[in-house]
Amino acid sequence: MGTQGRNSGQRRGSAHDRILDAASRRFYTEGIAATGIDAIITEAGVAKMSLYNNFASKSALVEAYVERRHAEWLALYATRRATAASPVERILAVFDAYIDHAEDAYDHGFRGCGLLNAAAELPAGDAGRHAVRTHKEEVEGILRGELLALTTPERADALATHLSFLLEGSMARAGLAGAPDLLHTSRALAAQLLTTA
Amino acid sequence: MGTQGRNSGQRRGSAHDRILDAASRRFYTEGIAATGIDAIITEAGVAKMSLYNNFASKSALVEAYVERRHAEWLALYATRRATAASPVERILAVFDAYIDHAEDAYDHGFRGCGLLNAAAELPAGDAGRHAVRTHKEEVEGILRGELLALTTPERADALATHLSFLLEGSMARAGLAGAPDLLHTSRALAAQLLTTA
DNA sequence: GCTTAAATATACCGTACGGTCTAATTAAGC
DNA sequence: GCTTAATTAGACCGTACGGTATATTTAAGC
């Protein structure tokens, strides 16, 4: 940001947005390294210099992509949480948000969690990897917070970790299967776990 | 395979093996797309033509890498299973094999499950992706088989899926954290789940 | 309507990629 | 010791990569 000033909102379909849209689609469905700058600008219908006027480098674009996917999920989660009536439903809203996000991508090639896939392409110390780690810890933190309405802090901790593993594990398997069905399975397992505990 | 015939065993440190060794290390720690052919042959101490005499292409090398990692895990699992004394221990042997495999990589940069990371780099219909899917289903099948000694087929099915999610989820989170600790956490959660059920 | 900034097209840069060719060398099998 | 196959070094290929330079056009703000 910074220099855009008064132009902050920008007109509909600004170069910045179209680029990030196209990059997000390609990064998710084809992978990051497999997606070249030229493919992005072609799909965005934009000049190459417009990309480099809006993003410092490809890896800056990747960072924006990662942040955006996490923000998308947070928005989906906020919607689900707003209509959840009980503590258990508020916990399951996290699973619902995962399902919503997955079903967004299902039509045009579901390949699992975009953040985990991105991290898998990044080297060990990369900033993007750390960002993904933080996002996943945030999700577990949300789970823990909601669980505190149900049980002791100690059990909330353990259960939050357990549910996070169910979430990420089912997402990994669902991505391999190419369909979000397994996410419903993990939601059901979580629901069962919460009612028996 | 096929044409090697009498030379099947090959001498120690054959080009084929040194190439696959080097490629496996690089693919795992740096990622597949980020690892060039030149980096592999340099690390293997081998001529470029030796690579193409042993592997048809880079993606053939990737397939060999995927198969090899799965075979490594199967071997670790077989060892763990052989000394497991009870049905529960035989189930936890699957978790132990995951831990063993992870700790192999911990010294030189732990980045989670090599198979899942590889799949994350492959396009939607790729053969390697399907291979990874099959391997993960095989692991779940092993869990289901061991669980049949403990409970009904229906509950074994559900529990196998549950344990598989715990496994893969904890592996994903552990990879992001850069340390295998969370695998011990999921093993403990699994043990608890098995004793209370 | 003038100014200022964003976005454009196009040519270009060096480099690295996956992969091939050739010719020479090494080593194993009989 | 001869044959046969594996391995080697190194030049080479076309292509695609991420990124830059420049000059021009488009469009928004006042």
Automatic annotation (TrEMBL), chains A, B:
The record's listing under InterPro entries reads:
Homeodomain-like_sf, HTH_TetR, Tet_transcr_reg_TetR-rel_C_sf
State the signal peptide span: none
Provide the GO MF annotations for this entry. Answer: DNA binding
Where does the source fall among the domains of life? Bacteria
- Gene3D superfamilies under this entry? Tetracycline Repressor, domain 2
What residue stretches are annotated with the HTH tetR-type domain? Answer: 13-73
UniProt keyword annotation of DNA-binding present:
yes
Alphabetical keyword list? DNA-binding, Transcription, Transcription regulation
Q: Which residues bind DNA?
A: 36-55
Which PANTHER family does the protein's record reference?
Answer: HTH-TYPE TRANSCRIPTIONAL REGULATOR YJDC, TRANSCRIPTIONAL REGULATORY PROTEIN
Spell out the protein name for this chain.
Answer: TetR/AcrR family transcriptional regulator
Record organism: Mycetocola tolaasinivorans
